[in-house]
Design goal:
Layout: E1 3-6, H1 10-20, E2 26-29, H2 41-56, E3 62-71, E4 78-79, H3 82-88, H4 91-98, E5 105-116, E6 123-135, E7 150-152, E8 155-156, H5 162-168, H6 170-185
Parallel strand pairs: 1-2, 1-3
Antiparallel strand pairs: 3-4, 3-5, 5-6, 6-7, 7-8
Helix pairs in contact: 1-6, 5-6
The chain binds inosinic acid.
Inosinic acid (IMP) binds near residues 69, 86, 144 and 147.
Length: about 190
């Protein structure tokens, strides 16, 4: 059975396919579920997957993934507003906000929420991953979103191939747990 990934983000689908290449096919579904405002990423993803599963409605399990970037010196900003800040300020301006700070530590967090069973009252499993790094001036052409300003071990995420990014990234860590779980629970 395919695994359905509800997202409009091609970069995320590319990353997920690396994990499921020999387990299941990852099918991309475009459905714009509501992202509630909440401090908890798990809560945002859980509500989103419930809505998407009920709306898509043919009993084939679906998953969503939500991420955020939290910058220590800015009190965890942009956190749950990461997408909004990328769209409004842009990553160059985010870099400028921290350029003069001594501490430039940041963390990416990812939550995957998977819904199966009765679409009206689904079973939801969540899988998390995170990675700590440093905010730097933009470098690199790969990846997406904040990748050019997030450095891990001397390399920005945008300087890595999909495979290399997955090996260290927040989403890669969550995807690894999720793919293992799917392999164990497949019919
Ligand atoms: P969402 O989870 O798709 O809502 O993403 C939240 C924000 O984080 C968006 O601005 C994304 O571009 C950004 N983002 C999510 N995952 C990554 C990543 O792996 N690298 C860089 N930026 C990311």
């Amino acid at each position: 059975m395919p695994v359905r990934f509800v997202t409009g983000n091609e970069g995320k689908v590319r990353e997920a396919r690396e994990y499921f290449a020999d387990v299941e096919a990852v099918e991309q579904i475009q459905y714009d579920y509501a992202e509630i405002q909440h401090d908890s990423l798990a809560e945002i993803a859980t509500r989103g997957v419930r809505e998407a599963y009920a709306a898509i409605g043919d009993d084939i399990p679906v998953f969503v993934e939500d991420s955020e970037l939290a910058i220590e010196a800015l009190g965890g900003f942009p956190g749950p507003y990461s997408a909004y800040v990328e769209d409004t300020l842009g990553i160059e301006r985010v870099w400028e906000l921290v350029a003069d700070e001594e501490r430039r530590r940041a963390r990416f967090r990812s939550v995957i929420a998977y819904a199966s069973g009765d679409p009206a009252d689904p079973d939801v499993e969540t899988f998390t991953g995170s990675v700590a790094g440093t905010i730097v001036a933009p470098r690199g052409e790969g990846g997406f979103g904040y990748d050019p300003i997030f450095e891990y071990n001397g390399t920005t995420m945008a300087e890595l191939s999909t495979e290399e990014k997955n090996a260290i990234s927040h989403r890669g860590r969550a995807l690894e747990k999720f793919a293992e779980w799917v392999a164990e629970h497949r019919d």
